[in-house]
Design goal:
Blueprint: E1 12-15, E2 18-21, E3 26-27, E4 30-34, E5 48-52, H1 67-70, E6 80-81, H2 84-93, E7 98-101, H3 110-122, E8 126-131, H4 137-145, E9 149-153, H5 159-166, H6 170-183, E10 187-194, H7 202-216, E11 222-226, H8 241-253, E12 259-262, H9 267-270, E13 272-273, E14 280-285, E15 288-292, E16 323-325
Parallel strand pairs: 5-7, 7-8, 8-9, 9-10, 10-11, 11-12
Antiparallel strand pairs: 1-2, 3-6, 4-5, 4-16, 13-14, 14-15
Helix pairs in contact: 2-3
This protein binds zinc ion (ZN).
Zinc ion binds near residues 274, 276 and 300.
């Protein structure tokens, strides 16, 4: 790159002989959401999470559902600014159990995400990464050492789709999944955005589920999420709910214990059931929790089986609210 030139991700640029992060401490805005919206269904259910992103992305998905942020070429998008300690304090003050790096991929704001996660950890706030997992091994280790939970977007199970539709590669994403399971204590769940005609064939879904069971075991929760037409793929119809239900059934038949549907109204596909006896453990309607039948250790009240995840005594009470948070602006007030 030439002096001052930015990469595909937009936020890293050449300054002298190094590549630097140009957006440290700047965010696209802060919001408190239910943790179920990340989505994480087995990580302190019902609690609030302080969410934020920056701008840019290291992928170039033609179906991006957050393209106003990820493809932003306007630094004005970065309206809010906050240093890591300010974010940790804001998370505590707003009653959040965790902070989420989301909307765009936190892999590209590595230093800022890690510093924020460490500041949060000192305050007893957990950190959640919502990421495509497309990262080299050395930064992967650094990054996830600071994280407590993650939702990894698995965008398809074929290299051609990754290359043509996302501008990235599948192999490193699978490496990230295997790494998280084998070498870390990070709690993680997987999201698969089902795009009609692109990644929803029975053959592809079966191959994906087979890989997950063989390489991660049956306990990693899997979310099949509905696509809505966006960015450069506005000609593709939204995912029919029946497609999600079919995918969920197929994954369960392959032995995956906890499979969810997302972005659709489907209480059965959004609730958590005991993997041993089938008892309803956590009832969900969109992001609102209903019945909650889990011990603090995640045990089923009927058979005692342990539901995998991170739980506490009872559910959180955040509900399905979304609340915008104004930051004091430790780096000076943002432009907006
Ligand atoms: Zn049970």
């Amino acid at each position: 790159m030439r002096e001052g030139q930015r990469g595909l991700c937009f936020v890293r640029a050449r300054h002298g002989n190094s590549i630097v992060l140009t957006t440290y401490g700047r965010s696209s805005g802060f919001c408190v959401d239910p943790i179920e919206k990340k989505p994480l269904n087995h990580f302190f259910p019902g609690t609030a999470v302080l969410s934020f992103g920056t701008a840019g992305c290291n992928l170039a998905c033609k179906f991006c559902q957050n393209w106003d942020i990820s493809k932003s070429r306007e630094t004005e998008t970065l309206a809010a600014s906050a240093d890591p300690e300010t974010i940790a304090v804001a998370a505590c003050d707003s009653g959040c159990r965790s902070v989420a790096f989301t909307y765009n991929d936190p892999i590209i704001f590595h230093e800022y995400a890690i510093d924020t996660a460490l500041a949060c950890r000192e305050s007893g706030i957990a950190s959640v990464a919502v990421t495509a997992g497309y990262v080299e091994p050395a930064p992967r280790r650094e990054f996830f050492a600071a994280m407590d939970a993650a939702n990894i977007d698995l965008k398809a199970f074929n290299e051609k789709f990754y290359r043509k539709i996302t501008g990235s590669r599948l192999g490193p994403v699978l490496d990230t999944l295997a790494y998280l399971q084998a070498d870390t204590n990070v709690w993680f769940e997987i999201t698969y955005l089902v795009i009609p005609g692109y990644n929803d064939s029975t053959r592809e879904l079966e191959a994906m589920c087979g890989w997950l069971v063989d390489n991660l075991g049956p306990s990693v929760p899997l979310h099949f999420s509905a696509f809505h037409p966006d960015w450069k793929m506005r000609d593709i119809p939204p995912t029919p709910p029946a497609t999600l239900t079919r995918a969920r059934r197929l994954a369960r038949e392959h032995g995956i214990c906890h499979v969810y549907t997302g972005n659709v109204h489907d209480p059965a596909g959004g609730s958590t059931y005991c993997q041993s006896c089938g008892k309803l453990l956590i009832e969900r309607d969109w992001y609102r929790l209903g019945a909650y039948n889990l011990g603090a250790d995640g045990s089923c009240p009927d058979c005692g089986s342990i539901c995998p995840g991170r739980f506490m005594e009872g559910p959180g009470n955040w509900g399905r609210r979304r609340m915008v948070v104004d930051m004091p602006g430790a780096f000076g007030a943002g432009p907006a």
